[in-house]
Design brief:
The chain is α/β, with parallel strands linked by helices. The protein has 22 helices and 10 strands. It has a domain of 332 residues: ABC transporter type 1, transmembrane domain (ABC transporter transmembrane region fold). The protein is 64% helix and 9% strand. Strand 9 and strand 10 form a beta hairpin.
């Protein structure tokens, strides 16, 4: 049991909803389709009438044929049964067609709400929760919800069938009908006993499905690293363990949900035996029921108990849909950690940034920025340096408002960042992460990503600002080159150039760069630096610097350690202090420049004076 449930804990944003709350919310999604649902209800009623009319007509036919077996009578009865069957099919077709359309629209809207809520969550949500599990809620759970809707509609049809049939049976024999109804509490007790256990096993089944989806997605995304370390066997073993866990949970769920049917079959057999005996006795005497009525009663028992089995098992199956909707609504209702106090538009921005006693913690246990103060002037290029974990990336993340800070203020052009409309504010920010992400499509599509309305001329102009666009010759099809999934068809340097062109086209007031640590050849390095110089001109730039050239060209360098600023100044001034920055320079940046020289010696793409400039440094 421990193995089966291992790793299947709920997410921290999961919450428990009452059945009434869930049903009220589900009904809200159907409210715009009142007319279609009324038509569906009418068709359900007509289908139930036609469905019960068939066995009634058959029972009457037995008595009629017993007295008059002429061909004309038999044909008339046959035609009547055939017409009822056709009508039942027609009414059911209309019901199924309209219910499918309405259900499709509801699931569509539910997925839209779930996806919209997901992309609005702050980045901390995606740090904490695997994307595969989130995808499972948006896709699998919404689909299971639609199946539950069909289950509800079928239940309504079955209830109507039971009601109509019961009324008719009362007209034949009140005692026999009461005997049949006496078994109804048995079905209800059985159904209710399955209610809680069905919800539990269903939730566990969904969690293990999400766990498997997350592991598969992670394995495929990281297949390059896995193959480079020859870890295919380890990936398969992890999948095999998760899959085995899914099998165990699935078997437990399946056994739980289907076990209700054998139990109901036993109750049905008991009820049928009692009614066969009582019905046989009821045919005796001059006032007894007829043979056709006895046949109808026996046939009606089947018609009665099958819907009753459906109604009884409904609760166990209904929990499947409720748990699915519960998971989707929990995703939609998850509270965001980044909360804005107002929605002020910011049409223009100069890029003046102030950190005023800012305190930041991601988990609540470890403080990343204890009391951070920094004033970045508009148009200034600021380089952040320091060892891993010093807090450099956290500063950039706070400027983009991706994470919530717990104390102090951040002012943008003198305005509190918490009062700004984030969509409007982020239009003025250009971000190039350490590993630039490219979406599936062409190079042109990715450059235009920040400004979808930009013309082809605008795209080409942005490209030409980086090395005069010569780097397009490296690409197989120029701007129409397919970048592949996550930009896999391009080298890291080419991806960086595309990302820089994308920022240039957007023309932001604030530029944030987390320079990649991946090695690129000297010529690409030169093009990237030219692109950076173009972007950072006349803009506020925050650079988490890994390149010596970027550090040297910065207006100001901030040296960070444990979330505090321990040194600041220009490159030359900090070297003269022989402090922490000088140590970083001697152990990292200087070593980097020597590597650059060694690689550049056999490259003809660099001019001799460029080599001399680097060597002189």
């Amino acid at each position: 049991m421990g193995f089966i449930l291992d790793g299947l804990d709920s997410e921290d944003y999961d919450r428990q909803y009452g059945d009434r709350e869930l049903l009220t919310r589900i009904v809200g999604y159907f409210r715009p389709y009142r007319r279609q649902m009324i038509l569906v209800a009418v068709m359900i009623a007509l289908n139930s009438l036609a469905g019960t009319g068939t066995p009634i007509l058959i029972s009457m036919s037995i008595d009629i044929v017993a007295e008059n077996s002429s061909t004309q009578v038999i044909l008339l009865l046959t035609g009547g049964i055939l017409i009822l069957g056709v009508l039942a099919w027609f009414f059911n077709y209309i019901r199924q067609r309209h219910s499918a359309v309405v259900t499709g629209n509801v699931v569509l809207q539910l997925r839209v709400d779930a996806f919209e809520a997901t992309i609005q969550h702050d980045l901390s949500f995606f740090d904490e929760h695997p994307s595969g599990k989130v995808v499972s809620r948006i896709t699998s759970d919404t689909q299971d919800f639609s199946e539950t809707v069909n289950l509800v509609l079928n239940l309504l049809s079955q209830i109507l069938l039971v009601v109509i049939l019961t009324i008719w049976l009362f007209t034949i024999s009140v005692p026999l009908t009461l005997i049949m109804l006496a078994f109804t509490p048995v079905a209800v007790i059985i159904a209710l006993s399955f209610r809680r256990v069905a919800r539990t096993v269903t939730q566990r089944a969904r969690r293990v499905t999400a766990k498997i989806n997350a592991q598969i997605q992670e394995s495929i995304s990281g297949i390059f690293v896995a193959k480079s370390f020859r870890q295919e066997a380890a990936i398969y073993q992890t999948f095999d363990e998760n899959n085995a866990q899914g099998y165990q949970v699935g078997v437990r769920r399946g056994v739980t949900l289907v076990s209700i049917f054998p139990i109901m079959a036993m109750a049905t057999g008991l009820g049928m035996g009692v009614l066969v005996y009582a019905g046989g006795l009821a045919t005796r005497g001059p006032n007894g029921i007829s043979t056709g009525e006895w046949f109808l009663f026996m046939q009606a028992v089947g018609f009665f108990w099958f819907p009753m089995m459906g109604i009884a098992s409904f609760w166990s199956q209904f929990q499947d849909g409720l748990s699915a909707s519960e998971r989707v609504f929990a995703l939609v209702d998850r509270d965001t950690k980044v909360v804005q106090d107002a929605d002020e538009d910011i049409p223009e921005m100069t890029g003046h940034i102030e950190f005023d006693h800012v305190m930041l913690t991601y988990t609540g246990n470890e403080i990343v920025l204890p009391d951070f103060n920094l004033d970045i002037q508009a148009g200034e290029t600021l380089a952040l340096v320091g060892h891993t974990g010093a807090g450099k990336s956290s500063v950039a993340k706070l400027v983009t408002r991706f994470y919530e800070f717990q104390g102090g203020r951040i002012l943008i052009d003198g305005r509190d960042i918490k009062r700004l409309n984030l969509t409007s504010y982020r239009q003025h920010i250009g971000l190039v992460p350490q590993e630039p992400f490219l979406f599936t499509g062409t190079v042109r599509d990715n450059i235009r990503y920040g400004r979808p309305e930009a013309s082809d001329e605008d795209v080409l102009d942005a490209v030409m600002q980086i090395g005069r666009g010569d780097w397009l010759e490296w690409l197989s099809n120029g701007l129409e080159t397919d970048v592949g999934e996550r930009g896999g068809n391009l080298s890291m340097g080419e991806r960086q150039l595309v990302a820089l062109a994308r920022v240039l086209l957007k023309d932001p007031a604030i530029f944030i760069l987390d320079e990649a640590t991946a090695s690129v050849d000297p010529f690409t390095e030169t093009l990237i630096q030219e692109g950076l110089d173009t972007i950072m001109a006349q803009r506020t730039a925050i650079v988490i610097a890994h390149r010596l050239s970027t550090v040297k060209n910065a207006d100001r360098i901030i040296v960070m350690e444990e979330g505090n600023i321990i040194e600041e100044g220009t490159h030359d001034a900090l070297l003269a202090q022989s402090g922490h920055y000088a140590d970083l320079y001697n152990t990292y940046f200087r070593h980097q420049s020597l590597e650059y020289i060694n690689e550049a010696k056999w490259r003809v793409t660099l001019e001799p004076e460029e080599l001399g400039e680097v060597a002189a440094d």
